[in-house]
Design goal:
Elements lengths: L2 E7 L6 H8 L6 E2 L14 E5 L5 H10 L4 E6 L3 H10 L2 E4 L3 E4 L5 H8 L4 H8 L4 E5 L5 E5 L20 H26 L9 H17 L5 H14 L10 H7 L6 H16 L7
Antiparallel strand pairs: 1-3, 1-4, 2-3, 4-7, 5-6, 7-8
Length: 282
């Protein structure tokens, strides 16, 4: 019998375990980093959880997570075998016998990695996974289906069994970065169109790169964080937060005892307060 699962990115979904408990209290999430040498990072790694079609969890995935924070997959194998195979893919071996994390659960990476592979190779890599469903830009669903289901289940080992050339990994990363920059450009065109007015596409990409670099200097690199940072960059430009009159922002960004996301939220609150017209003094 075919069962559906979500493979979700804890780093992209704030409070993932709490959300899963609220959306599907009887479901059992499985962290792929547990029982590996990366167990200490389990709170930021990928999580597998069973999902019922048309459930509250499924609807939340479609509405909020499927674009960047995980993939929908289906399998008729035993759950333990599915989890074992997915766990074996969390890292890869590169040229020179260097190991690296592999974010195969990012829908952009999944598409680039599997979609155009020869059938025999793709089937072997999918193991007990029979179907992967990915969103298309036009609202349709791309199905990556296994043609030959009798494939062995791989097992995690400290030395990765999967090898990728550095060129392949760079290709995957570059494509992901390019898509992210286009998402940022689209976001800015929608909410801050004056920033990109009269700029040709290459200049728009340069603006987005500068915005991303500005966020990274303050420790913000996740896509949702950079999207939020864009409002600050659009308002104050490349000098932010070092410009004149921006002392309060520098103070908030340097605040101790709070998380980076809390600092960013407080900076955005300050931006909102400054945008509210004030009543003239009587």
């Amino acid at each position: 019998m075919m069962h559906a699962y979500l493979l979700l990115d804890s780093h992209q979904i704030e409070g993932l375990h709490a959300q899963l408990y609220a959306l599907a209290p009887t479901a059992t999430p499985h962290s792929l980093y547990l029982m590996t040498q990366y167990a200490a990072m389990a709170a930021f790694g990928p999580v597998v959880v069973g999902v019922e079609r048309d459930s509250q969890l499924a609807n939340t995935f479609y509405a909020n997570w499927q674009e960047k924070a995980g993939i929908w997959l289906e399998s008729d194998a035993a759950e333990a075998d599915l989890i074992a195979h997915l766990r074996s893919l969390i890292h890869v071996q590169l040229d020179g016998d260097v190991s690296a994390f592999f974010r195969f659960y990012d829908p952009v990476i999944t598409r680039l990695w599997l979609h155009d592979l020869p059938v025999v190779e793709r089937d072997r890599l999918m193991g007990p996974v029979r179907v992967i469903r990915l969103p298309e830009a036009d609202g349709n669903t791309l199905l990556i289906s296994q043609q030959n289901p009798d494939q062995p289940t791989a097992r995690y080992a400290p030395t990765p069994w999967l090898r990728l050339s550095a060129h392949t990994l760079e290709h995957l990363g570059q494509a992901q970065r390019s898509q992210f920059l286009q998402h940022l450009v689209d976001h800015v065109q929608r909410y801050f169109p004056q920033c990109l007015h009269d700029l040709h596409p290459r200049q728009q990409q340069a603006w987005a790169l500068a915005c991303q670099a500005s966020a990274a200097r303050q420790g913000y690199s996740a896509e949702d964080e950079v999207m939020l940072w864009a409002s600050l960059f659009a308002t104050y430009g490349q000098d932010f937060p070092q410009g004149e009159g921006q002392e309060i922002y520098r103070t908030l960004l340097a605040e101790r005892g709070v998380t980076p996301r809390q600092r960013l939220d407080r900076v955005l609150d300050e931006l909102t307060l400054r945008a509210i017209p004030r009543e003239p003094a009587q």
